[in-house]
Specification:
Methyltransferase, Cobalt-precorrin-4 Transmethylase, Domain 2; binds S-adenosyl-L-homocysteine; 305 residues; five-stranded mixed sheet; alpha/beta; 12 helices; Cobalt-precorrin-4 Transmethylase, domain 1; five-stranded parallel sheet; globular; 3 domains
Amino acid sequence: MLVGLGPGSVEHMSARARAAIAEADTVIGYVTYIRLVADLVQGKEVIKKSMTEELDRAIEALARARLGRKVALISSGDAGVYGMAGPTFEVLFQAGWTPPSGQPDDIEVEIVPGASALNSCAALVGAPLTHDFCAISLSDLLTPWPVIARRLDAAASADFVVALYNPKSGRRARQIVEAQRLFLAHRSPDTPVALVKSAYRPRQRVEFSTLARMCEADIGMLTTVLIGNSNTYLRDGLMVTPRGYANKYEVGSGDTRDGEQAGRSLTSGLEGWLAALRASGENVEALARRYGLPPQYIAAALARE
Ligand code: SAH
């Protein structure tokens, strides 16, 4: 069982996560998380591992499961988000494992979802993820920097709200500065940024900043950095990304704006936009520039019925 514990407080752990740990014969995980479920692990085999031993943890889990033991591998947040689920399947496949097919020596895998850092950090600052967002890890321990930089650049230029995981550690202090540089090429220096450290843990700390000043904040191994999009705002200590209701409704009165209909795509939605493209009479290059889309896409859109 790959168990996501949520951000790190017992209250935010799911009932299934607690039950899975209670059912297990062996519990494997990072010391901090074992401590969090100390009341549930009494009398069980407990294997404490340090941060860098992810593959070891997965290999150990497989060895125990082969002995017929029920193993809970615990992760913070969600086990599938920069967590143990990936390395575990890699180890399983490497060992020739296949999903259960009714054989006596089958090993079953259950993944127990948990609230990831982006969920818990967003909950502490308001509603920053109410429109399209993505997560990018700044850890270059296993990912080449050009790959990370390309994703930062793409997310910044496409105006995603971004949750940065693993933003900084003792040995990795420059990555966050480089990320800021890439973002500033596309986004205003005033863009709101929230820095949440140790969400739902004893040393929880929430700090608001801007894209221009975020690197001055206290950032560490347990910080998640939430960078707003071009519409995100800060008000009364809350970070909010509008969902887009203002495109369709007068927010004060709730009346529908001229030309728009409740329950229908916007006039600038796909159908309306295609009609406007055709009616514009402009050439492909000009339209591609105006909308920041590839010319091939515009040409194909104009060719469609
Ligand atoms: N599986 C975890 C992520 C592991 S990567 C999850 O789904 O949340 C480790 C990174 O997660 C940290 O560097 C930090 O960016 C983020 N993180 C994990 N727990 C956090 C917490 N309680 N508060 C803020 N950020 C956290």
